[in-house]
From TrEMBL:
This is Uncharacterized protein. The keyword Coiled coil applies. The keyword Coiled coil applies. Residues 1-31 are annotated as: Disordered. It comes from the Bacteria. Residues 75-215 form a coiled coil. Residues 16-25 have a biased composition (Polar residues). Keywords: Coiled coil.
C-alpha cells in the first residue's frame, strides 16, 4: 500500500513538473487546471469512501516518510506557484488589456491624425494650386510689365528725340525771330528816322509852299492893284468920246 501511494505521488509529481515546463497558457486555463488538481481527490472520493480515506491519508503529512513529505511540500509549493502565476497572469492580462486599449486609442488617434494629415495635404495641394496660379499670374504680369516698360522706354526715347528736335527747331526759330526782330527794329528805326526827315522836309516844303502862296497872293494883289490902276487910268479916255453921243 505504501509503495502504491509513493508511485502515485511520484507520477503526479512528474505530471506537475511536466505541466510546469510547458508554455504558459491563459489565466483561465491555469485556474481550470488548478481547480482540476485540487478537485481530483474529491472526484476520486465520489465512487467509494475508502478511496477518499486513502487520498486523505495520501496528502496528510502525518505518518509520512521523507519522500512523501517532500512530494506533498513540492505539490503545495507548485500549487502556490501556480496560484502566484495565475495572479501574475491576471495582472499581465490586465496590463495587456490596458495596452490593447491604449493601442486601440493610439490607432484611433492615428486614424484621426491620418485623416487630419490628408485634409492638411489636401489644403496644401489647394494652396499649392492657388500659389501656382498666382505665380503664373505674377509671371504674366511681370512679362506684361517688362513689355510695357520696353514699349514705354522706346516711346520715351522717341519722344525725347522729337523733343530734342523740336527744341532745336524752337531755338533756331527763336534765334531767327530775335534776328528778325532786331532787323525789324533797325528798319523801324531807319523808317522812323526817314519819316522824321521827311516830316522836316515836308515842313520845309510846306513853308516854301506857304511862302510861294504868300508871294503869289502878293503878286496877285500887285497885279490886281496894277490892273485896277491901269483900268482907272484908261477909263476917262474911253468915256469922253462916248459922252456927246449920249
Amino acid at each position: 500500500m505504501a509503495r502504491e501511494t509513493e508511485k502515485k505521488g511520484m507520477a503526479w509529481f512528474k505530471n506537475a513538473r511536466s505541466n510546469q515546463n510547458q508554455p504558459e497558457k491563459s489565466s483561465a486555463e491555469h485556474q481550470e487546471i488548478a481547480v482540476t488538481v485540487e478537485e481530483e481527490p474529491a472526484y476520486s472520493a465520489e465512487p467509494e469512501l475508502p478511496a477518499a480515506e486513502n487520498s486523505k491519508q495520501l496528502f496528510s503529512k502525518d505518518n509520512q516518510d521523507k519522500i512523501g513529505l517532500d512530494v506533498i511540500v513540492s505539490i503545495e509549493n507548485m500549487l502556490k506557484e501556480r496560484q502566484l502565476l495565475s495572479y501574475k497572469n491576471k495582472g499581465l492580462e490586465d496590463q495587456l488589456f490596458t495596452a490593447n486599449e491604449t493601442i486601440n486609442r493610439y490607432k484611433h488617434e492615428q486614424i484621426k491624425r491620418d485623416q487630419l494629415v490628408q485634409e492638411k495635404n489636401k489644403e496644401i495641394r489647394e494652396l499649392e494650386n492657388v500659389l501656382t496660379n498666382k505665380q503664373m499670374s505674377y509671371d504674366q504680369l511681370l512679362e506684361d510689365y517688362k513689355e510695357y516698360q520696353l514699349t514705354s522706354n522706346l516711346a520715351y526715347e522717341k519722344l525725347s528725340n522729337q523733343l530734342e528736335t523740336e527744341t532745336a527747331k524752337y531755338n533756331k526759330l527763336y534765334e531767327e525771330s530775335n534776328n528778325t526782330q532786331y532787323q525789324s527794329m533797325l528798319k523801324i528805326n531807319a523808317l522812323e528816322e526817314k519819316v522824321r526827315e521827311l516830316e522836316i522836309a515836308n515842313q520845309k516844303y510846306a513853308e516854301q509852299y506857304q511862302n510861294i502862296l504868300d508871294d503869289k497872293a502878293k503878286l496877285m494883289q500887285t497885279i490886281n492893284d496894277f490892273t485896277e490902276k491901269m483900268s482907272f487910268s484908261f477909263s476917262p479916255k474911253t468915256s469922253a468920246p462916248n459922252t456927246p453921243s449920249e
